[in-house]
Design a protein that fits this description.
Blueprint lengths: L13 E7 L4 E9 L5 E8 L4 H21 L5 E8 L2 H4 L2 H13 L4 E4 L6 H7 L12 E2 L5 E2 L4 H20 L11 E5 L3 H12 L3 E5 L3 H11 L2 E2 L12 E4 L8 H4 L6 E2 L12 H7 L3 E2 L2 H4 L2 H11 L3 H25 L3 H14 L8
Parallel strand pairs: 3-4, 3-5, 8-9, 8-11, 9-10, 11-12, 12-13
Antiparallel strand pairs: 1-2, 2-4, 6-7
Helix pairs in contact: 1-13, 3-4, 5-6, 5-11, 5-12, 11-12, 12-13
The chain binds nicotinamide-adenine-dinucleotide.
Nicotinamide-adenine-dinucleotide (NAD) binds next to helix 5 and helix 6.
């Protein structure tokens, strides 16, 4: 297993491997870049087929976090950790405590948050041995409601703000708060998608939804007046905005050719099946809000949990997602380049030359 010549290796600053035979813990922490601050990112537990798969994931995901935090203007770097194992079979309190000790051994270089395969409760167990866990405490949320540490409400609001920015840019609606009659198709109405649907329906949008779980879909239909759609049609409806809020890789060779909406703006991670699909969307005249920009609400919320920011501060920062997207859309038009490429470039500007020489 190579590291420095690994295709996903991108001058990562730090890689740690840890094995604890007593608890069965086998984990890797990757810190990609800390020029903006300590690396923060999820701790994923997954039954990787082999060590190579785990290494690939942690290298790729930690780099993604550097870009996400830089574009969200957070004083955070990019990092990620992976625990090799099936969360349903191999997770135990002792293993989580051992992970907590592993986190502590890095002295705060990396801060862990929940991810697939781990929960807030798991992070709290790790937190018995380290302060370097985040998204674990109750406090008033950005909307004044009590928050348990679940980042989904902030992610949903940030996605809503991002849709407003995309609509203003592409459809030329001058009043950013006016979404009256806007047609939006949402794929997946879980923690984020349902709340996004709520914001949109409050703003007067007409929503179509599809979710593989019938009860989730029925909730959006009965409570928000959403129109139920089929699995095969949800991405291809003749609407203004398609918002993928379920799984990744939904923008691929087959789907892009059939899209009718002029805007793709949703919370799902890794929506592009391959990097070149960024360009395919752009060539088709579709405005794509890069997922790692529009879905940064969760990490913004977690940042303020750590630093003790007020609900107002969090909300203002979430509103900044709209401004960052507007800048990406403008630059994309100016330079005639796809939005994902512009977002990557803007992120690099924000973390490669930081802190700025004027000390701001
Ligand atoms: P969730 O599991 O609560 O919701 C996902 C929903 O999608 C579920 O209701 C599920 O039934 C549905 N679904 C799954 N497969 C589907 C399919 N093929 N078609 C339609 N629906 C399908 O997850 P979530 O927290 O709402 O996250 C949604 C997406 O946003 C994920 O890609 C996640 O990685 C991303 N994201 C979430 C956050 C957050 O704060 N929760 C932050 C950043 C990114």
């Amino acid at each position: 297993m190579s590291v420095f010549t690994h295709p996903e290796f991108d001058n990562h600053e730090h890689l740690s491997f840890h094995c604890d035979p007593e608890t069965g813990l086998r984990a890797i922490i990757a810190v990609h870049n800390t020029s903006r601050g300590p690396a923060l990112g999820g701790c994923r537990m997954f039954p990787y087929g082999n060590d190579e798969e785990a290494l690939r994931d942690v290298l790729r995901l930690s780099k993604g976090m550097t870009y996400k935090s830089a574009l969200a203007n957070l004083d955070l770097g990019g990092g990620k950790s992976v625990i090799i194992g099936d969360p349903r079979q191999h997770k135990s309190e002792a293993l989580l405590e051992a992970m907590g000790r592993f986190l502590e051994s890095l002295g705060g270089l990396y801060i862990a948050a929940e991810d697939s395969g781990t929960s807030v409760a798991d992070l709290q167990v790790m937190g018995r041995h380290t302060r370097h866990v985040a998204g674990v405490s109750s406090r008033p949320g950005f909307d004044g409601r009590p928050s348990t540490g679940d980042p989904s409400p902030a992610t949903a609001y940030g996605t809503f703000v991002g849709i407003q920015a995309a609509v203003r840019h592409k459809l030329g609606r001058s009043d950013v708060n006016d979404l009256e009659g806007l047609k939006v198709a949402i794929q997946g109405v879980g923690n984020v998608g349902y709340r996004l649907a709520w914001h949109l329906s409050e703003a007067g949008a007409e929503i179509s939804v599809y979710d593989i779980h019938q009860d989730q879909m029925e909730r959006a239909v009965s409570e928000l007046g959403a129109r139920p759609a089929d699995a095969e049609e949800i991405l291809f409806l003749p609407v203004d905005v398609v918002a993928p809020c379920a799984m990744g890789a939904v923008l691929n060779d087959a789907s892009i050719a059939k899209l009718q909406a002029p805007i793709i703006a949703g919370a799902a991670n890794n929506q592009l099946a391959r990097p070149e699909h960024d360009s395919a969307l752009w060539q088709q005249g579709i405005l794509y809000a890069p997922d790692f920009v529009i879905n940064a609400g969760g990490i913004i919320d977690i940042h303020y949990e750590r630093t003790g920011g007020s609900p107002d501060q969090v909300r203002r920062h979430l509103d900044g997602i709209g401004e960052t997207l507007a800048e990406i859309f403008r630059r994309s038009e100016r330079d005639s380049r796809p939005t994902g490429e512009i977002a990557n470039r803007l992120a690099e500007e924000r973390f490669q030359h930081y802190p700025r020489v004027d000390g701001v």
